[in-house]
Amino acid sequence: IKNKWDRKWVTGLLSLFVLTGTCTNTFAEEQNTRTSLYDLPLDQLMEVRVGVASKKSEGEDEAASIVSVIDENQIKAFGANSLVDVLNRVTSIYVQSTYAYPANMVSIRGDVTEQYNNRVLVLINGRPFREIAFLGDNRAIWTMFPLSSVQQIEVLRGPGSVLYGTSAFDGVINVVTKSYHQDEVLGKVTYGSSVYKKAEAYTAQKIGDLELNIGANVLGENGWTFTVADERKYTRSTDMSQSGFGVNGDFKFKEWKLSVFYGKNQQDTIGNVPIWGPDQLPTTLSADVISQLRNLDYRSESGRFFADLGWEHSISPTWKTTVNGTLNLYDFRFFYVTALDNSREADSRDYLLENTHFITLNDSWKATVGALVWWRNAKGDEPAFLPNDNTTDIYTVNGSANSTPFNFLPYHEELFLSTYGQLDYKATDALKFTAGAQVNKAPDQPVSAVPRFSTVYQVDPNWNLKLLYGEAYRSPSLSERYRVSTSATGSVGLKPETTQTLEAQVAYRNNNLQSKFAVYKAYQNNLISRSIPVAPDPRSYYYNISVSEAHGVEIEGKYRMASYDFLLGQTLQWTSIENTYDPFKQPTFLTKGGISRRLTETTLLGLFDEFVGATGVTSAYNWLTFNTHVNLGHSVFLDLYLINLLNQTVDFSEYIRQKIPSIPGAPGRSGYVSLSYSF
Question: What is the rounded average pLDDT for all residues in the chain?
Answer without folding.
Answer: 89
